[in-house]
Amino acid sequence: MNNIATNTEMVTISIDGKAIQAEKGQNLVDVAKKNGIYIPTLCYFRELNPLGTCRICTVKLNGKHTTGCTVKVDEGMEIEVNTPELLDNRRAIIEMLYAEGNHFCPSCEKSGNCDMQNHAYDMGLTVTRYPHVFSDKIVDFTPERMIMESNRCILCKRCVEEIKTAEGKDVFSFVQRGVKTRVQIDYEQEKELTEAEALHAMNICPVGAILVKGMIQEQPFGERKYDLLGKDIKASPDSCIVRNEDEKFIVATTSLAGCFGCHMSLLDIDTEILDMIDIVEFNKSPLTDIKDFSKRCHVGLIEGGCANSENVEVLREFRKRCDILVAFGECAIMGGIPAMRNFVPLEECLEEAYLNGVTTEIGANIVPSHEDIPKILNNVYPCNEVVKIDYYIPGCPPNAQHIWKVVKSILLCEDYSIAHDEFKYD
Amino acid sequence: MMQINPIDRSRLLDMAWEVQRKKRHIGRDDITKIAQEMNLSRMEVEGVITFYHFFHRKPAGKFTIYLDDSVIARQSGYDEILKAFEKELGIPIGGVTQDELFGFFRTPCMGLCDQEPACLINFVPFINLTPEKVSKIINDLRGGTKPSKICDTPKSTVQYTPEVDKTVFFKPYNNFSALEQLKSLDPETIIDFVKSSNLGGYGGAFFPTGLKWQFCRNNESDAKYVICNADEGEPGTFKDRVIMEEMPELMIEGMIFAGYAVGAEEGIIYLRAEYRYLKKKIEKLLEKYRSKGYLGKSIAAKEPFDFDIRIQLGAGAYVCGEETALIHSMEGLRGEPGTKEYFPVERGFKGKPTIVNNVETLAAVPRIFEMGLEKWLSLGTEKTPGTKLLSVSGDCKNPGIYEIEWGMNMREFIELTGADNPKMIQFSGPSGTCLSEADFDRNICREDLICGGSVMFFNQDRDLLHILKSYSNFFVEESCGICVPCRTGNFLLNKKIEKLISGHGEKKDLNDIKEWSHIITTTSRCGLGQMSSNSLEDVIEKFPEVFKKSLSENTDFNKAFNLEDAIAEYDTIINEMTADYE
Lengths: 426, 582
Fold this sequence. Notes:
The complex is a heterodimer. Chain A is an alpha/beta fold. Helix content of chain A is 26%, strand content 19%. Chain A contains twelve helices and 19 strands. In chain A, the strands form six sheets. A five-stranded mixed sheet of chain A has the order 2-1-5-3-4, with helices on one face. In chain A, a hairpin with a 6-residue loop joins strand 8 (172-175) and strand 9 (182-185). By secondary structure, chain B is α/β, with parallel strands linked by helices. In chain B, 42% of the residues lie in helices and 14% in strands. Chain B has 23 helices and 17 strands. Chain B has helices at residues 12-23, 28-38, 42-49, 71-74, 78-89, 131-142, 147-150, 187-196, 209-218, 239-246, 248-262, 279-291, 323-330, 359-371, 373-378, 410-417, 464-478, 484-501, 507-523, 527-531, 534-542, 544-548, 563-581; strands spanning 63-68, 102-107, 119-121, 124-126, 158-160, 225-230, 266-271, 296-299, 305-313, 354-358, 387-394, 400-405, 408-409, 424-427, 433-435, 443-444, 454-458. In chain B, helix 2 crosses helix 3 and helix 17 runs antiparallel to helix 18 (484-501). Chain B starts with 11 loop residues before the first helix and ends with a helix. The mean pLDDT of chain B is 95. Chains A and B meet through strand 4, helix 2, strand 8, helix 9 and helix 11 of A and helix 3, helix 17, helix 18, helix 19 and helix 23 of B.
């Protein structure tokens, strides 16, 4: 490099204690990358005018927090990238983005091609530490070619800064302020974009907020952008179960507001279930058809979130009767597909389901209600907003191997490793 | 539809104000027109308009009423006044009467904390409101009286100044006198002088003023700007308003000094919309300076120079007090803070070197030249020479402005204000620090306790959780929304405080609050987010009993989830439906 550049100045910086030579004024994220140090980024996509909106590249520069993408390297800079604090900050930001928006990966067109999801996979994220906001912003189908799903938008500003018409006018703009901020498409200007420019807008969106009608490529599993990239997740249980050597582990399972798909996946380990039976005894579970707890359980597996009063009661019963609760599947973790009704008033939901829907009988005029029928909750709640949950297994449904690895490691108190292709949100 | 000569975008806020003044809102067609004239997309203009809370997209009433809902207002009878307005107008807050005569909205602290409850009606102030006064105001307005005919003139009492030879701001000043010195001083000398004075940014950051001027001067450019930051928005502060009411000439002359020193031809006062009622008076004064030759072309100086000042009105956004956000706002953009890749002295307003100084900082400059360096440096402490204006409000006998010499002991200061055994003092605003008894022996200066200007007293009966909730509401409302830790982090913290207030808090919630605050502090893009949880952290540390009594032991059940509440809506719907069947 030195023999080409005549007027570039080389400087020495240190990243996590490692001395690195770099061209003065180069972007820190790029310098780190060239030297094998990975600083995760989400909004950053070009060196000019870094946006500095997503904050996940936050590093420490000479002891002060700042974003890596806005740092131009200079002599003597001391940079910290992978300290426990910074790693947790990054994770926290991704979790916060998951909590503020509606990231229903199982039903998202961009799943598998989503930059944010890929970061979450890399971090081994199973749940967000924050309560879900269940954002109710506009989903705009009005533009001729595009759909803007603001509830998925992370406000990275890429589209705002990058996509302009030939006249130089903005197509995407931030409107409102604070938690209400969203990206709005200018319908007039959107028409001015060429087909390629429209696709470019969809492609630079790091999540699934911008979609071009008719051009949404649904790729099969294994062929999506991030299916093969990524690393395995290593983890270990927080504490060990105490039991007598000669006793089996007692496990209970239930499906709340879910589709039983997670339970189907439970059975997908085929003959390995026979090994499982050697050490596990099922108590209350749809698999055994035991309706009531007959003894205290070591582990309770919960599928589905809470959509009605019975779900809440069952979940609370599980919390009382089980030492450890494991939420498995997206619905149990974040409400999942049933939680999509959280954006529709309850009255409209009931009317659609029982009175005006396409599958209701003509003349139907009764919404079922009886003291024996569970009452519908105002919203669908993730399990951890009702009781404490100890472990989470993501997926829709979770991969069978993934489920049993986690359960087995909790029971036997062993470290475990989940392969990248077993760890999915969809 | 390409405009041949599009209007300069920095006129956007002015144009929007003009429309709103005439129509009381900015409609779809108005936005289209502005967009065409500026050669922008419609939505880009919409994005700017909807960023500022004083711009309305729907009719906001011939008389637009903004009631101050700051933490001080809330403990000075806000609830009663709110009810009085709602009763008189027949609409809830946030609404507009059917005849579109009145619009009634809330707004954060508007710099009248020593005369609360207060409101603005068509941007003229009404202070010390009582239900009777509200009733009379509304009757008068209904009868056709103009708000400006019946409004109040907010006079803040200057409660304290040091002995006259130690006073910097509030003593008589002969207009133009300091400017005479320009005739014998070149710009470099002025900068050296300001550097030696150790003057730092009185907005609260205390960045050395002389150094800022030096950087700006050193950057070669065909244009440079001097911006006076009169967007004083930190809840509880109103000192800049009082300077602009009592001694605006000091601010103007400070700007002239700055313009000469850095080589700028244009000075701009970014005036918060809450202070719009001061605009005419300052403009009149500027005219006087122009007529005397102190503004305009070839101003008399050792190196004669051109310099003029105009006022840019803000439109309601606390974050615009941050200098890069302020510059964006002046450029007709959303008031989002920049990435800090460049400092304004390198690339500021319109990409040109710019200095942004607080009103009080600029007002100090002519005084320093007047009294001389030696005298100035003999005041205050080594790191903070001179005096400081503090805006005092809350539970004390004598709210108002205090000009104190830096270094004053806290107890002495408390005694001056007549605050009786305060429980907590909010020092430097919600983004500053909370002081408890243990801090009262400290001294007010850079070496110890620094203050941007807001001091709010809370007595032993005040509920700190509710005060924190009020701060949190403010930050949620005022976050620009560009980065997630500030935008959503503060929103989630707000929910947590709500949970604590409702009595459902557990010990682990306190850990969550600490952890989340830390994340917001370390990852937010600008000072607003970085400092938004300061008070929360302070109260946790200094007033642990506040949380102890409202937190229970950790359980495996979330007490904030109440099944009865969650099924209430269903019960109501079913009851209504079954009533229909019968």
